[in-house]
Amino acid sequence: MYAVMSKILSKFFKQHTIFKYGFNISPMYRRSTGRIIEVSEDLLKARVKIPISYKNKNYVGSIFGGSLFSATDPVFMIQLMNILGNDYVVWDKSAEIKFKRPAK
Question: CB 47: neighbour CB atoms within 10 A?
Fold first, then answer.
């Protein structure tokens, strides 16, 4: 469904604009509490903002690690799919985050 919508919208908007607003409007991504702030025209860079709120705050007052992960994980896969095109199958098999410090 999203691929079809993206194909139709690409006639009117640039790919990076569809990428940004498509994620921010998507109900699945909205639940992560993350928002895509900007995407480069070549889709190689995306900036994500995760404001701290009651939805993603843990017991000690920092952002829950799962919220950080869920706000970034789908972005990499869709980025790579758009960069490589339909000639490749992109499958997100594993991922890992090494936290530097608590996100406050």
Answer: 12
* Bridge partners for 57 per DSSP: 63
Q: What's the pLDDT tens digit per position in 6-60?
A: 889 989 999 999 999 999 999 889 888 999 999 999 999 999 999 999 999 999 9
Cβ count within 10 A of residue 46 = 19
Secondary structure (3-state) at 45: coil
Only one residue has tokens 């952002």, namely 63
Return the axis-axis angle of helices 15-25 and 2-9, rounded to nearest 10°. 140
Largest CA distance in the chain: 47
DSSP readout, 19-80?
HHHHHHH-HHHHTTT-EEEEE-TTSS-EEEE----TTTB-TTSSBPHHHHHHHHHHHHHHHH
- Total-model pTM: 0.81
